[in-house]
Amino acid sequence: MSSDLDFTGPLRDALLAADFTYDAVAEAIGDDAHRALGRNETLPALRRTTSGGPLDTLVRLFLLQAPVPREDAERALPGLVDRLCNAGLLEQSVGEVAARTDCRPYAVSEAGVERDLWVVSDLTPGLDGAPVAVGPDHVLGISSASTSLAQLTMREPVERALDLGTGCGVQALHLATHADTVVATDVNARALWMTRLNGALNDIAVDVRDGSFFEPVAGERFDLVATNPPFVISPATGERLVYRDSGLPGDRVVEHIVRTGPDHLAEDGWLQVLANWAIVEGRPWDERLGSWLREDCDALVVQREVLDPAAYVELWLKDSGHHGGPDYAARYDTWLSWLEQTGIEGIGFGWINVRRGGSGLAGRHELLEWPYDVEQPIGPAIHAWGDAASGLRGLDDDALLATTLHAREDVQQETVGRPGAEDPEAIVLRQQRGFRRARTADTVEAALVGASDGDLTLGQLLGALATLLQRDEEALRAAYVPVVRELVGEGFLRLG
C-alpha cells in the first residue's frame, strides 16, 4: 500500500467496529428515512441518529453531511480524525468535524455471499435542496447509472476484466469478486486516487491506470470490459464535467468504444456498455447503431428508454445545478437549438453488449426496443442470450432437427378470447424471468413449446404434431424450424 493510503486499514477496522454496513445503516435509520435519503432529504435520518454513538456519528458525518462534535468523531474513528483530515476526507473547526468526502457502505454478492464494502467519493450534491455546485473533476459516487451497470454486467469467473472510465471504482470492486485481475482506467486524476483508495480500503487489488479510452491497455485483451462512459450528448460550451462529458461531439464516445472495444477482447470476451445515443431524424435508431457493430461479433443492443430533446436537456441541467439559475434559460435554449440543428429528435438510453467471436462465422445481432420491466440483475439473461447465439451458430436445419429441446421452466401460456369460446383468439407465451419477453403463438408453436421436455428431438416432435394435426410433415418442418430458431434465440427454448 502506498504511504498516502496507509490510513485505509485502520479506517476499515473502525468502520467494522461501528457496524457501519449497508444493512446496519438501513436498520438504524428506518425505511422512511432510507427512502427520504434516496430523494436527497436528510431530516428524517437526522432525527433517527442522535445518540452520539459510533454508528449514528458515521451516518451523520458521511451520509447526511452534518458536522459532528469532535469527541463523537474521535469515538467513532479512534486515532484517525487528524489522519483523515490530512488525507482530505475530513475537515475540522473548533469543536466540530465535517466530511469533505462521502464514505458509503455498500454490499456486493460474492459467490452468493454478501460482502460489506465501502465506497469513497465526492460529497453527494444537492442534499435538502441546496444548490448543486460540483467541480469539473467531481467524482460521482454510487448512482443509478453505476447500479444499472452492475446489474447488467455478467458475473461468470474470468481471468482479466477492465473497468473503463472507473470513476470512484464501483465497477472494479464488483469485477474483483469474479475476475483474477482487474484493471481500472480514467482520465481524471482525482478519480484514479479514489479508486486506489477504495481498493485499499476494501483490501481488493485493482491495477489503476491513467489514460483515455483504451490507450492505457494498448495491446492487451480482456475477457470482460464494463463501462459507463461519459455519454451525455451536449454542445461544446467550454465547460466539462469529466464524469459525464467526454468532450467528443454527439454520441461519438459511445460509437468509438463500440467500434474499437472488440480489439481489446479475448476470444468470446464481452464488452458491456451503459450508454446514451442520438436518434437522428430520418434514420431508425437500430439501423444507425447496427452500423457500429462488427460482423464477426455477437451483439445484443437494448433500448430501454427514449427522451425527447427538451426532457433530456432539463435532466442534465438539473444534474449540473443550473436549474433555476440566472443563465438557465440561455443554457436551455443553446442546448436545445444545437440538438435541433444536428437533427437529433430523441435520445435513447440502454445497454450495448458485444461479444468477440473466434469462429470466423458471422455474429448474431439483435437490436431490441424493450422499455418493459425486466428481472434484475439482468446480466444472467444477457449471458443466456450469448449461449443461445453460440448454440445456434453453425447448426444447420438437419442438425437442429436432431437436437432435443427444453422449454424454459418460467414460460407460461396465456389465452385470450371471449368467455365460453371454443378456440382462443390468441395464445401468448410469456417469460416470468430475465427479459420477460412475450410473443404470440399459434397452436403448433404452443404445442411444440409445451412438449419440449428433452425426451424427443425436434424432428420427432414435428413428426408427432404432423400426425396429430393431419399436416404434411415436410411442410411443417419447413415452416417451423425458423420459428424454433427464434424461440431459442429469444430464450423460450434451450438446446440440448
UniProtKB/TrEMBL annotation:
**Top-level taxon of origin:** Bacteria
A GO cellular component annotation here is: eRF1 methyltransferase complex
Q: Which protein are we looking at?
A: Transferase
This protein's record includes keyword Transport? no
Against CDD domains, the record matches this protein to: AdoMet_MTases (cd02440)
Its GO biological process terms? methylation
Any idea which GO molecular function terms this record carries?
Answer: N-methyltransferase activity; nucleic acid binding; protein methyltransferase activity; S-adenosylmethionine-dependent methyltransferase activity
> DUF7059 domain location, by residue?
17-99
Q: Where is the Methyltransferase small domain?
A: 147-276
Query: What family name appears in the similarity comment?
Result: Belongs to the eukaryotic/archaeal PrmC-related family.
List the Pfam families.
Answer: DUF7059, DUF7782, MTS
Q: Which residues form the DUF7782 domain?
A: 391-493
Indicate whether Transferase appears among the record's keywords.
yes
Report keywords, A-Z. Answer: Methyltransferase, S-adenosyl-L-methionine, Transferase
The record's section on InterPro entries has: DNA_methylase_N6_adenine_CS, DUF7059, DUF7782, Euk-Arch_PrmC-MTase, SAM-dependent_MTases_sf, Small_mtfrase_dom
